[in-house]
Amino acid sequence: MSTYQELKGLKIKYLSSDTSGDRAIEGEVFYNSASGKVASHIATGAWSAGAPMFTGRNDLAGFGTQTATACFGGVDATAVSNDTEEYNGSGWSAGEDMPSAIYEHAGTGTLTAGLSVGGTLPGGITNVTNEYDGTDWAAGGTYPAATIRLQACGTQTAALAAGGGRPTISAVVCEYNGSAWTANPSPSGDLPAAIQYHRMTGILTSAVSFGGGPSGPVTGATATYNGTAWTAQTATLNDTRSRLGGAGETDSSAVAFGGFAPNGTVNTELWDGSSWTEVANMGTARYALAGTGTKSSALGSGGYTSGRLSATEEFNLSINTITAGAWSSGGNMNTARGYIAGFGVQTSAVAAGGYNGTARVSNVEEYNGSAWSNATALPGAYAYGGGAGTEPAGLHWGGTNPGGAVNTTFEYDGSSWTSGGNLSEAKYNTGSAGTQTAALAAGGVPPDNTPPYTNDTEEYDGSSWTAGGDMNTHSQAMGGAGTQTAGVMFGRGAIPSDDDKNIEEYNGSSWTTSPAKMQVCEEFSASSQNAPSSDSIIFGDSSTIVSTEQWNGTVCVTAPNLAAARNKAGGAGTGSSGLAFGGLTPGAINTTEEFAAGSSALGTAKTIDFD
Amino acid sequence: MALFLYGVAANTGKGFFTAEDRRNFFLRGYTGHDGSNYVDVWAIGANERGACWLADRNAIKKTESEAQALVKASDDLARTAWDNDNVSGESADEKIARIGAKPGFITIV
Question: The complex's ipTM?
Answer without folding.
Answer: 0.79
